[in-house]
Amino acid sequence: MISLLDRYTKSLTPSPKPHLERVREYAAWYQARHQTPFAPSPSDDVDLRTYLLELRVSGAGRITLKKHLTALQHFYGWATATGRLTDNPFEQYDFNRPFLTRDQIRRRQDAAPRAHPHEREIARLRALNRLAEHLNRTTDLQSTLNITLDTLTDIMGLPTAWIFLWRPDEPPHPHDFTLDAACGLPPGLEYRQRLFLCDPPDCHCQSLLRAGLLTRAVNVVECTRLQDAAEAQGDNRGLRFHASVPLLTDGRVFGILNVATEEWQFLSAADLQLLSAVGAQVGVAVERARLFAQRAEWGAVEERNRLAREIHDTLAQGLAAIALQLETADALLEASPEAARIRPTVQNALTLTRANLEEARRSVLDLRAQPLEGKTLAEALASLTTQSEWRVPVRATLTGPPRPLPGRLEVGLYRIAQEALLNATRHAHAQHITLQLRTESTRLQLIITDDGTGFDPAHLPPGRYGLIGLNERAKLLGGTLKLESSPGQGTRVEVSVPITDH
Question: Residue 34: phi, psi to the nearest 5?
Answer without folding.
Answer: -105, -10
